[in-house]
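Priority: medium. Attachment 1 of 2:
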Protein backbone atom coordinates (compact mmCIF):
# COMPACT_ATOMS: atom_id res chain seq x y z
CA UNK A 1 0.00 0.00 0.00
CA UNK A 2 1.19 3.50 -0.82
CA UNK A 3 2.32 5.41 2.24
CA UNK A 4 0.21 8.53 2.68
CA UNK A 5 0.70 11.49 4.98
CA UNK A 6 -2.93 12.65 4.89
CA UNK A 7 -6.24 10.81 4.94
CA UNK A 8 -8.75 11.48 2.17
CA UNK A 9 -12.35 11.61 3.36
CA UNK A 10 -14.79 10.72 0.59
CA UNK A 11 -18.47 11.43 1.14
CA UNK A 12 -21.13 9.51 -0.81
CA UNK A 13 -24.02 11.96 -0.75
CA UNK A 14 -27.13 10.04 -1.87
CA UNK A 15 -26.39 6.89 -3.89
CA UNK A 16 -29.03 4.57 -5.31
CA UNK A 17 -29.44 2.13 -2.42
CA UNK A 18 -31.51 4.05 0.09
CA UNK A 19 -34.98 5.22 -0.88
CA UNK A 20 -36.82 8.39 0.17
CA UNK A 21 -38.92 6.58 2.79
CA UNK A 22 -35.87 5.40 4.72
CA UNK A 23 -34.74 8.80 6.02
CA UNK A 24 -35.93 12.39 5.80
CA UNK A 25 -32.24 13.40 5.80
CA UNK A 26 -31.49 11.58 2.52
CA UNK A 27 -31.09 14.16 -0.27
CA UNK A 28 -33.47 13.24 -3.09
CA UNK A 29 -33.61 16.37 -5.25
CA UNK A 30 -31.04 18.69 -6.78
CA UNK A 31 -31.33 21.41 -4.14
CA UNK A 32 -30.78 18.92 -1.34
CA UNK A 33 -27.89 17.17 -3.12
CA UNK A 34 -26.13 20.47 -3.80
CA UNK A 35 -26.63 21.82 -0.29
CA UNK A 36 -25.52 18.62 1.43
CA UNK A 37 -22.54 18.12 -0.88
CA UNK A 38 -21.22 21.64 -0.27
CA UNK A 39 -21.75 21.27 3.48
CA UNK A 40 -19.92 17.92 3.47
CA UNK A 41 -16.99 19.49 1.62
CA UNK A 42 -16.85 22.35 4.12
CA UNK A 43 -16.89 19.77 6.92
CA UNK A 44 -13.77 18.09 5.52
CA UNK A 45 -14.67 15.83 2.60
CA UNK A 46 -12.08 16.11 -0.18
CA UNK A 47 -14.06 13.88 -2.58
CA UNK A 48 -17.82 13.94 -3.23
CA UNK A 49 -19.18 10.68 -4.67
CA UNK A 50 -22.35 11.63 -6.55
CA UNK A 51 -25.45 9.99 -7.98
CA UNK A 52 -28.42 11.86 -9.46
CA UNK A 53 -32.10 11.53 -8.59
CA UNK A 54 -35.27 12.17 -10.54
CA UNK A 55 -36.69 15.52 -9.44
CA UNK A 56 -40.27 14.26 -9.40
CA UNK A 57 -40.00 11.15 -7.25
CA UNK A 58 -36.40 10.75 -6.00
CA UNK A 59 -35.72 7.62 -8.06
CA UNK A 60 -32.13 7.02 -9.27
CA UNK A 61 -31.40 8.82 -12.56
CA UNK A 62 -28.66 8.51 -15.18
CA UNK A 63 -29.71 11.64 -17.08
CA UNK A 64 -26.84 14.17 -17.36
CA UNK A 65 -29.47 16.92 -17.16
CA UNK A 66 -30.31 15.79 -13.64
CA UNK A 67 -26.62 15.95 -12.72
CA UNK A 68 -26.37 19.43 -14.19
CA UNK A 69 -29.08 20.61 -11.80
CA UNK A 70 -26.51 20.39 -8.99
CA UNK A 71 -22.96 19.98 -10.36
CA UNK A 72 -22.34 23.66 -11.30
CA UNK A 73 -23.65 24.71 -7.90
CA UNK A 74 -21.32 22.30 -6.14
CA UNK A 75 -18.37 23.51 -8.22
CA UNK A 76 -19.19 27.12 -7.36
CA UNK A 77 -19.71 26.32 -3.68
CA UNK A 78 -16.57 24.30 -2.91
CA UNK A 79 -13.37 22.93 -4.44
CA UNK A 80 -13.96 19.25 -3.63
CA UNK A 81 -13.19 16.57 -6.22
CA UNK A 82 -16.37 15.41 -7.94
CA UNK A 83 -16.62 11.63 -8.35
CA UNK A 84 -19.50 10.54 -10.62
CA UNK A 85 -20.88 7.02 -10.31
CA UNK A 86 -20.78 4.48 -13.11
CA UNK A 87 -22.76 2.06 -10.96
CA UNK A 88 -25.84 4.22 -11.46
CA UNK A 89 -29.07 2.70 -10.20
CA UNK A 90 -29.78 -1.00 -9.88
CA UNK A 91 -31.23 -2.30 -13.13
CA UNK A 92 -29.73 0.38 -15.38
CA UNK A 93 -28.03 -0.70 -18.62
CA UNK A 94 -24.30 -0.11 -19.08
CA UNK A 95 -25.06 2.68 -21.55
CA UNK A 96 -27.13 4.41 -18.88
CA UNK A 97 -24.52 3.84 -16.19
CA UNK A 98 -21.72 5.39 -18.26
CA UNK A 99 -23.76 8.24 -19.74
CA UNK A 100 -23.26 10.90 -17.07
CA UNK A 101 -19.53 10.33 -16.62
CA UNK A 102 -18.95 10.19 -20.37
CA UNK A 103 -20.90 13.42 -20.88
CA UNK A 104 -19.56 15.40 -17.93
CA UNK A 105 -15.95 14.10 -17.88
CA UNK A 106 -15.28 14.32 -14.12
CA UNK A 107 -11.89 14.13 -12.45
CA UNK A 108 -12.91 10.85 -10.83
CA UNK A 109 -15.51 8.15 -11.47
CA UNK A 110 -16.40 4.97 -9.65
CA UNK A 111 -15.69 1.65 -11.38
CA UNK A 112 -17.14 -1.58 -10.01
CA UNK A 113 -14.62 -4.37 -10.45
CA UNK A 114 -16.84 -7.43 -10.58
CA UNK A 115 -20.36 -8.80 -10.82
CA UNK A 116 -22.24 -9.73 -7.66
CA UNK A 117 -25.62 -10.45 -6.16
CA UNK A 118 -26.71 -7.10 -4.70
CA UNK A 119 -29.45 -7.70 -2.17
CA UNK A 120 -31.56 -4.83 -0.88
CA UNK A 121 -34.75 -6.86 -0.46
CA UNK A 122 -34.41 -7.26 3.35
CA UNK A 123 -34.94 -3.49 3.61
CA UNK A 124 -38.34 -3.79 1.94
CA UNK A 125 -39.40 -6.31 4.55
CA UNK A 126 -38.66 -3.81 7.34
CA UNK A 127 -40.56 -0.89 5.80
CA UNK A 128 -44.13 -0.24 6.96
CA UNK A 129 -44.97 2.39 4.34
CA UNK A 130 -43.43 3.99 1.26
CA UNK A 131 -43.54 7.60 0.11
CA UNK A 132 -43.11 6.74 -3.57
CA UNK A 133 -44.68 3.91 -5.58
CA UNK A 134 -41.37 2.77 -7.13
CA UNK A 135 -39.56 2.07 -3.86
CA UNK A 136 -40.97 -1.30 -2.82
CA UNK A 137 -40.52 -2.95 -6.23
CA UNK A 138 -37.02 -1.48 -6.59
CA UNK A 139 -35.92 -3.09 -3.34
CA UNK A 140 -37.76 -6.39 -3.78
CA UNK A 141 -36.46 -7.06 -7.31
CA UNK A 142 -32.93 -7.44 -5.91
CA UNK A 143 -33.84 -10.90 -4.60
CA UNK A 144 -33.26 -12.04 -8.20
CA UNK A 145 -30.74 -9.44 -9.38
CA UNK A 146 -27.07 -9.50 -10.38
CA UNK A 147 -25.14 -6.24 -10.61
CA UNK A 148 -23.28 -6.98 -13.82
CA UNK A 149 -19.66 -5.90 -14.21
CA UNK A 150 -18.13 -8.32 -16.71
CA UNK A 151 -14.59 -8.02 -18.03
CA UNK A 152 -15.97 -6.57 -21.26
CA UNK A 153 -18.00 -3.99 -19.34
CA UNK A 154 -15.04 -3.05 -17.16
CA UNK A 155 -12.79 -2.74 -20.20
CA UNK A 156 -15.31 -0.55 -21.98
CA UNK A 157 -15.91 1.72 -19.00
CA UNK A 158 -12.23 2.23 -18.24
CA UNK A 159 -11.42 2.82 -21.91
CA UNK A 160 -14.15 5.35 -22.55
CA UNK A 161 -13.59 7.39 -19.39
CA UNK A 162 -9.79 7.26 -19.54
CA UNK A 163 -10.06 8.99 -22.92
CA UNK A 164 -11.44 12.01 -21.04
CA UNK A 165 -8.60 11.98 -18.50
CA UNK A 166 -10.93 10.65 -15.80
CA UNK A 167 -9.40 8.44 -13.11
CA UNK A 168 -11.16 5.92 -10.91
CA UNK A 169 -12.38 4.88 -7.51
CA UNK A 170 -12.14 1.10 -7.99
CA UNK A 171 -14.99 -0.43 -5.99
CA UNK A 172 -14.16 -3.94 -4.77
CA UNK A 173 -16.96 -5.82 -3.02
CA UNK A 174 -15.04 -9.05 -2.61
CA UNK A 175 -11.54 -10.51 -2.85
CA UNK A 176 -11.98 -11.66 -6.45
CA UNK A 177 -12.59 -8.06 -7.49
CA UNK A 178 -9.03 -7.24 -6.47
CA UNK A 179 -7.80 -9.90 -8.89
CA UNK A 180 -10.03 -8.40 -11.59
CA UNK A 181 -8.32 -5.08 -10.95
CA UNK A 182 -4.94 -6.82 -11.23
CA UNK A 183 -6.09 -8.14 -14.62
CA UNK A 184 -6.85 -4.57 -15.73
CA UNK A 185 -3.36 -3.54 -14.61
CA UNK A 186 -1.80 -6.45 -16.54
CA UNK A 187 -3.78 -5.41 -19.63
CA UNK A 188 -2.30 -1.91 -19.24
CA UNK A 189 -5.78 -0.40 -19.05
CA UNK A 190 -4.81 1.72 -16.05
CA UNK A 191 -1.76 3.22 -14.43
CA UNK A 192 -1.00 3.85 -10.74
CA UNK A 193 -1.79 5.21 -8.29
CA UNK A 194 -4.98 3.18 -7.84
CA UNK A 195 -7.67 4.28 -5.37
CA UNK A 196 -9.01 0.91 -4.19
CA UNK A 197 -12.32 1.21 -2.35
CA UNK A 198 -12.87 -1.98 -0.35
CA UNK A 199 -16.57 -2.38 0.44
CA UNK A 200 -17.84 -4.44 3.35
CA UNK A 201 -21.35 -5.37 4.43
CA UNK A 202 -23.42 -5.34 1.22
CA UNK A 203 -25.56 -8.48 0.99
CA UNK A 204 -23.87 -10.44 -1.79
CA UNK A 205 -20.38 -9.08 -1.12
CA UNK A 206 -17.76 -9.74 1.52
CA UNK A 207 -18.95 -9.51 5.13
CA UNK A 208 -18.29 -6.61 7.53
CA UNK A 209 -15.66 -8.35 9.64
CA UNK A 210 -12.34 -6.91 10.76
CA UNK A 211 -10.63 -10.11 9.60
CA UNK A 212 -12.02 -9.56 6.11
CA UNK A 213 -10.59 -6.06 5.98
CA UNK A 214 -7.17 -7.39 6.97
CA UNK A 215 -7.46 -10.12 4.32
CA UNK A 216 -8.45 -7.66 1.58
CA UNK A 217 -5.51 -5.45 2.51
CA UNK A 218 -3.07 -8.39 2.47
CA UNK A 219 -4.27 -9.45 -0.98
CA UNK A 220 -4.11 -5.89 -2.32
CA UNK A 221 -0.62 -5.44 -0.87
CA UNK A 222 0.49 -8.56 -2.68
CA UNK A 223 -1.09 -7.57 -5.98
CA UNK A 224 -0.33 -3.85 -6.10
CA UNK A 225 2.49 -3.15 -3.63
CA UNK A 226 2.95 0.58 -3.18
CA UNK A 227 0.94 1.40 -6.33
CA UNK A 228 -2.40 1.69 -4.55
CA UNK A 229 -4.14 3.76 -1.91
CA UNK A 230 -6.58 1.85 0.26
CA UNK A 231 -9.96 3.30 1.12
CA UNK A 232 -12.62 1.56 3.21
CA UNK A 233 -16.40 1.66 3.08
CA UNK A 234 -18.52 -0.03 5.74
CA UNK A 235 -22.22 -0.43 4.94
CA UNK A 236 -24.85 0.54 7.47
CA UNK A 237 -24.03 0.17 11.15
CA UNK A 238 -20.56 -1.10 10.32
CA UNK A 239 -19.43 2.23 8.86
CA UNK A 240 -17.58 3.91 11.72
CA UNK A 241 -15.61 0.97 13.10
CA UNK A 242 -14.47 -0.34 9.71
CA UNK A 243 -13.47 3.00 8.21
CA UNK A 244 -11.65 3.89 11.44
CA UNK A 245 -9.78 0.60 11.25
CA UNK A 246 -8.90 1.34 7.63
CA UNK A 247 -7.46 4.71 8.63
CA UNK A 248 -5.42 3.15 11.44
CA UNK A 249 -3.98 0.72 8.87
CA UNK A 250 -2.84 3.66 6.75
CA UNK A 251 -5.76 4.04 4.37
CA UNK A 252 -8.43 6.57 3.46
CA UNK A 253 -12.10 6.58 4.41
CA UNK A 254 -15.56 6.92 2.89
CA UNK A 255 -18.71 7.94 4.73
CA UNK A 256 -22.06 9.36 3.64
CA UNK A 257 -25.78 8.69 3.50
CA UNK A 258 -25.34 6.43 0.48
CA UNK A 259 -23.48 4.00 2.73
CA UNK A 260 -25.21 4.48 6.08
CA UNK A 261 -28.22 6.44 7.30
CA UNK A 262 -26.97 6.40 10.90
CA UNK A 263 -24.52 8.48 12.89
CA UNK A 264 -24.17 5.90 15.64
CA UNK A 265 -26.07 3.03 17.22
CA UNK A 266 -29.75 3.92 17.16
CA UNK A 267 -29.06 7.48 16.01
CA UNK A 268 -30.10 8.59 12.54
CA UNK A 269 -27.72 11.00 10.82
CA UNK A 270 -29.20 14.43 10.16
CA UNK A 271 -26.93 15.11 7.18
CA UNK A 272 -23.88 13.98 5.26
CA UNK A 273 -21.87 16.78 6.87
CA UNK A 274 -22.61 15.33 10.30
CA UNK A 275 -20.99 12.04 9.31
CA UNK A 276 -17.98 13.85 7.83
CA UNK A 277 -17.58 15.94 10.98
CA UNK A 278 -17.63 12.80 13.10
CA UNK A 279 -15.04 11.09 10.91
CA UNK A 280 -12.78 14.14 10.90
CA UNK A 281 -13.00 14.28 14.69
CA UNK A 282 -12.00 10.62 14.97
CA UNK A 283 -9.08 11.07 12.58
CA UNK A 284 -7.88 14.12 14.49
CA UNK A 285 -8.05 12.19 17.78
CA UNK A 286 -5.91 9.51 16.13
CA UNK A 287 -3.35 12.20 15.20
CA UNK A 288 -4.09 11.73 11.50
CA UNK A 289 -4.19 14.73 9.18
CA UNK A 290 -7.16 15.16 6.84
CA UNK A 291 -6.41 15.76 3.15
CA UNK A 292 -7.67 18.84 1.36
CA UNK A 293 -9.14 18.59 -2.15
CA UNK A 294 -5.82 19.73 -3.62
CA UNK A 295 -4.01 17.13 -1.52
CA UNK A 296 -6.36 14.48 -2.92
CA UNK A 297 -5.73 15.66 -6.48
CA UNK A 298 -1.98 15.38 -5.97
CA UNK A 299 -2.22 11.98 -4.26
CA UNK A 300 -4.41 10.49 -7.01
CA UNK A 301 -2.90 12.25 -10.03
CA UNK A 302 -6.16 13.95 -11.04
CA UNK A 303 -6.51 16.30 -13.99
CA UNK A 304 -8.09 19.23 -12.15
CA UNK A 305 -11.58 20.68 -11.89
CA UNK A 306 -10.96 23.04 -14.80
CA UNK A 307 -10.75 20.10 -17.20
CA UNK A 308 -14.26 18.74 -16.55
CA UNK A 309 -17.30 19.39 -18.74
CA UNK A 310 -19.46 21.07 -16.10
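Attachment 2 of 2:
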Amino acid sequence: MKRIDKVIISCAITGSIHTPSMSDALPVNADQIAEQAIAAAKAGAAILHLHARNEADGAPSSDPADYMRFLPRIKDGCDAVVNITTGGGLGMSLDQRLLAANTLKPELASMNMGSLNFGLFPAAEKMKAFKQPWEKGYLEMTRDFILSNTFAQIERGIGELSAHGTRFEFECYDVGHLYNLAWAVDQKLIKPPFLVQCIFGVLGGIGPDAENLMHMKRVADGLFGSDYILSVLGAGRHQTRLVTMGAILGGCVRVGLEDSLHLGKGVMARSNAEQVEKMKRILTELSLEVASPDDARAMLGLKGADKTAF
